[in-house]
Write a structure and sequence with these properties.
Structural class: alpha/beta
Bound molecules: adenosine monophosphate, magnesium ion
Number of strands: 26
Helix content: 10-25%
Radius of gyration: 30 Å
Shape: elongated
Number of helices: 8
Strand content: 25-35%
Amino acid sequence: MSDCYAVPGLLSFEQALSNMLEQVRPVTETMSLPIEQAVKYVLAEDITSPLPVPPHDNSAMDGYAFSFTSLAAHRTLTLVGRSMAGAPFQGECKPGECIRIMTGATIPQGCDSVEMQENVVINVQDITFLTTNAPGANIRKAGEDIQQGQTVLQRGQTITPVYLGILASLGIASVKVYRQLTVALIATGDELKSPGQVLAAGEIYESNRFVLSAMLEKLHVNIIDFGIIADDYEAIKAAFISADHQADAVISSGGVSVGDADYSKTILAELGEISFWKLAMKPGKPFAFGQLPNSVFFGLPGNPVSALVTFHQLALVALTKMQNADHLKRTTLQVTCINDLKKSPGRVDFQRGVLMVNEAGDNVVSSTGAQGSGMLSSLARANCYIVLPSEQGKVIAGEQVTVQLFDQYL
Ligand code: AMP
Ligand code: MG
């Protein structure tokens, strides 16, 4: 993916990404939210544990608690009390004695082991132990999950359902999070109609907003949908101004390829600082990025595959930085490609692939077939990108390639 192989006049994918990441500013506003409302928000503070989890040594089984040394003298111990979850045994368990104990109940003083109830014989107050475990058996130690004072979660982590469980188990009722981003979505094109409408000659159904909104939902941003805007100077300008007033980021699709880019380009230059780039990337050559007075602007290509891939690989990475979320770590693997792939040097290629396990048990990847930048069906069949670096030419079946697994946003 290095610069030196890029076609002259095209900006490398990596350069474009780093330009964008340099220019976007993370939000600074934070708020305190009850944990039940905090899922998917980005943490604005480190969370250290105010207590050990579990808070006290407790039983992992329903059974009998005793001191391990008691059993060395005698197999039968005298039952002297019970410890229930939430109602611990109050006294001390002496040598020769045992305590009935339930899962989660505090280990009584004087006890260091628990035997499960299936391994004892009960005769009124006499409990005979049939097996011998190691000392400490069936006890969950205080702090074995999380120690007091330990940093359990960090600023920048996106709160998951599991994190909520951790926060609750620490007794933390609210957390400091960053506010959500607001993103405006605009589709441009005279030929676009919404599903449900009747198509006139030359028209097509608009699909980018549906894909992008659903991906933005997964990113947990507020979306302002500006719908379809005609290729009209005044209409586009009004939409861009309104979007810029309301949103942290404005995303448009269409109208950035040479020929019909004129309106967007002129208007954006009037309103802010815009770079139109031709990226050394396939799909997705035309791409615009820049600053509007109050927001950042991402101008995606109109072709559905190009719009999706440039959004996923570029805009989404910049948006996560704006959210203060940890940098995306995408999983890549080196695997054998089982068919030939067309490719000419000069652009990094994000082809669509199907990663699978072959009969020998090895990971291999196959192409989804035709890779046209308008062919969404090629993405629907895929579960990974086959990422072919700029300098790479065609791939012959049997060669190793890098695949990037689809992440949670697709
Ligand atoms: P453009 O970037 O506006 O030149 O559009 C490139 C191609 O993508 C054209 O074939 C458009 O009709 C198509 N296209 C543009 N926007 C959309 C959209 N929102 N949904 C589906 N196709 C689109
Ligand atoms: Mg267009």
